[in-house]
Write the structure tokens for this entry.
Amino acid sequence: MRHPVILAALCGAMALSGCMGRDDAEVSRALKSVNAIDESNLSDIMLTVGDPREAVAYFQRSSAENPDRIDLKRGLAKSLVRANRPAEAVTAWSEVIKMPGTNYDDNVALAEAQIRANEWPAAEATLNTIPPTHETFERYKLEAMVADSKKDWKKADSFYETAAGLTTRPSGVFNNWGYSKLTRGDAKGAEKLFAQALTYDPGSFTTKNNLVLARAAQRKYDLPVVDMTQTERAQLLYTAALSAIKQGDVTIGKGLLQDAIDTHPQYFEEAARALAALDAKPQKKA
């Protein structure tokens, strides 16, 4: 159903043309204006709550019918990203940045699609086309990821810090930064960043799990004091257990596995299987 405002505008345009005797061309322009408003609303829906595959089909059809409409081409590129088709999104964004009306945010979006498509050198080249004066959260988040991929830790840290300062929701930045620190072997630094991420998004299980990994890398196997459900507690104990076993602390790991089994409100198959495997494995004599 069309929005009431759009219907009212349509009726008004038709009534006005009838009263004043306007020609067909003017009526056509009025209808085209109303349709553009309607299309804009539909595009917004497709990019937010619509099924990604339906959104791709809609924007493919619409952009083919209106090849000069950059908004529709952007919609296609964004919907391809949502549909997890990054290679095609790279092609779509590459076309967008060649069109009249493009801006540096489009270049940033192209770089993101290139990263998703694992085209790291291309993403770096795209980011290098953007002037330093274009300071946005998305730009510096990607700059940090590219620096990470090159193991340029100094630049990565600088870009992560800048990105965190450009958003009111820096949880994801701190989580990514913490994971970067963890891969470098800086477990203590990673722990601090994961804890900081949780202050902004205390419900993120991924960050909680990463925090347990960072602590376990320091042989700190007790769970951190964070909000968690009973199921989450069992899963985090399981993560700590596997980390302990991997580091050779088998006895501690077995105890954590048993705690995970006892804590889980249902049958914890993975933990039970891991514990049974450890119990069945012959122990080395001292």
Observations:
- Residues 24-48 form the longest helix (25 residues).
- Residues 1-22, 30-37 have pLDDT under 50 and may be disordered.
